[in-house]
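User: Hello, can you help with two protein structures?

Assistant: Certainly.
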Amino acid sequence: MISRVTALFGRAKRVLQTEGLLPLLWQGLTLIASYFFRYETYYLYQHGLEEMNEDDLMPRVENFTSKVITTNQEADALVADGYQFRYSDGIHRERLDKGAIACCIFVGRELAHITWVATTEEAQKSILDLPFRVDYSNNEAFMGGSITDAKYRRMGLMSYSHARRRRFLRGKGAIVSRSPVAKNNIASRGMVEKSGYNMYGEARHLKILWWKSWKEKPLTR
């Protein structure tokens, strides 16, 4: 409970610093309401991890580095070297403990973009609070939890990071990656479709107090 409260305060601090007061208030109200009722619809995407030419996707920003962080020991070493990976909320530490993988882009020592990758169900649950179906026994993987710092948006970080993640997952033996994207998140949908994801299904998530429902169905057009 204490760690969850700490996580919320850390997240609120980040939103206030990077996006301002109004986005913080809106996200706060949305979070409070979500404890009692949620109704969300998603498009489900997949891609076969085909190779992309990273040289054609270089971000429009100088002094950047791409790093893949798989353990808390690696994260602590980066922090000791001045990289701003750790936040006060503890979410990063918890996810790495569960086996999630952080694919990051730093500008200087500042964290500009992060996307999380999972190759196990336990790791996925630490990233996504939805029972989204990924067949890890059949070499599938999950990508999600993407965040780009507001001042580095529209600079191509997401596209470049996506190409790097594909290469990393292929090296881990994965053959397919899956991601759910909220239907009303037009920006994220455009980005994943631009990156070569194929839409294969839809899902509905309904929560009323402590009762939850998640249903997936193939896409019909």
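That covers the first. Now for the second protein you mentioned:
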Amino acid sequence: MPTFPSLFGRPPAVVASAPGRVNLIGEHTDYNGGLVLPTAVPQRTTVELTLRDDDRVRIASTAVAGGAARGYRLGDEARSGDWLDYVQGCTRALGERAALRGFDALVASDVPLGGGLSSSAALEVALLRALRTALALPLDDVALALVAHRAEHDFVGARVGVMDQMAASLADRRTALFLDARSLAHEAVALPASLALLVIDSGIAHRHAAGDYNARRDECERAARLLGVGALRDVGAEELARADRLPAPLGRRVRHVVTENARVSDAVAALRRADLGALGALFLASHASQRDDFAVSLPEVDALVEIAAADPAVYGARLTGGGFGGAVVVAARADAGPGVAERIAAAYRARTGAPGRALVS
């Protein structure tokens, strides 16, 4: 495995990291101006970095076979279709608000790719944290998250909302981040000690820049225009009958967003009173809405949720992340002991043949 000195002939001057995230509830609501409730996971992405005296960027990843450094010049960023785009997106977006210098960097990460834990946002925020320190930039954590979001949304072309970058920049493992994606108002909500959060990968990778995710966003924007609102956040529950008259499948997309926003608020209330039975029921209702109204689940993911929900240690489970594969988040009893996640993953592998695995247990 390459090291920074072996690649660049000197030690790193700065080391920064950022966590992956799991969204407890509030899926496909952030880009509709709505509410989300992510938390950090143990896995992190780390960036070692040293500034250069020119405008060149050289960066390598320990996850890439051979570990050779890739390079480009600041101002000459051009999409390449792989992980380097997230780096280039960050320097392009940050360079629009600050004077940059070239740098050498090495990326290491244990955030799974395509598992729904937002490996891309962890990379973006870790890199921007390293650059913030190295260049002494006056960026607070929210401003840094917005630069990271612009990198992924505008440069990479994945039309994600701001949740992933805000979570990577602000979330921790002891609390959930209750975030209003429109106003960026946020609050830390304590996670009860009686709650264990498990994350189980379906073994089916997804890519946010792929067409299905962006198609859902297009459907939401079209529905908002037809309803005469700025975003689906502005549609009330009393207006769902009117939304149901929209051309299919737009009414179902609206129903998911409206009811999912309500479920986020209800989940925050359930956490505050440590009502984990209510939280589990909200997880299951959210998954059904993603499956039936938003159509972002897959049969294998549905099977994983069903297997998890049937376990006596589990309150509820749901697809987390953008969908079309990825992982499920499971609310389980903290006193159930180790092995619950692997027990569920093993049953899933036996039923589907897919290579499911516990990511957080």
